Amino acid sequence: MKTASLNKKQRLKSRKSIAELFDSGRTIHGKPLRILWKPLEQKQLAFVQMAVSVPKRHFKRAVDRNVLKRRIREAFRRNKGLLKLSASETGQSVNLMIIFTDTQIVSYQVIEDKLKELLLRLNKEISP
């Protein structure tokens, strides 16, 4: 069975959940990414649900935004195991939004390295 997949259940799509993230979520910064996250009370099938945002203010062309979103999703897909272990051990579900904060397009390797670092920091905050 595939362990490094990012299926529909793991995508955060609910407007209500996304609004709650922005209202009462916690933040982890690390240029060029920022993670908004919020632990959930109820248990769900997917321990981690995520969404990606690249601001139109910095990248006017949709092609550029889509490239960055693909790179972020791929980096998360390949490294979500770092976060999933902690969430499954504590039995806690987590919603998170990954926001690209830089004004220049960066390589996949830069995104992956920073995302790994941020996921490890998030892992420490989730674990007691």
Spatial extent as radius of gyration: 14 Å
Low-confidence stretches: none
Q: Characterize the biggest β-sheet.
A: 4 strands, mixed
What percentage of the residues does DSSP assign to strands (E)?
15-25%
Number of helices: 4
CATH architecture: 2-Layer Sandwich
Order of helices and strands: HEEEHHEH
In short:
The chain has 128 residues and is α+β, with helices and mostly antiparallel strands.
Features:
alpha+beta; Ribosomal Protein S5, domain 2; four-stranded mixed beta sheet; single chain; globular; 128 residues
What does this protein structure show overall?
With 128 residues, this protein is of the alpha+beta class. It has one domain (10-126): Ribosomal Protein S5, domain 2 (2-Layer Sandwich). The protein is built from four helices and four strands. The chain has helices spanning 15-24, 62-79, 81-90, 108-126; strands at residues 26-30, 33-40, 48-53, 93-100. The protein has a four-stranded mixed sheet, with helices on both faces. Strand 1 (26-30) and strand 2 form a beta hairpin. Helix 2 packs across helix 4 (108-126). The longest helix is centred in the C-terminal third of the chain and has 19 residues, at 108-126. The relative contact order is 0.24.
Fold blueprint:
Blueprint: H1 15-24, E1 26-30, E2 33-40, E3 48-53, H2 62-79, H3 81-90, E4 93-100, H4 108-126
Parallel strand pairs: 3-4
Antiparallel strand pairs: 1-2, 2-4
Helix pairs in contact: 2-4, 3-4
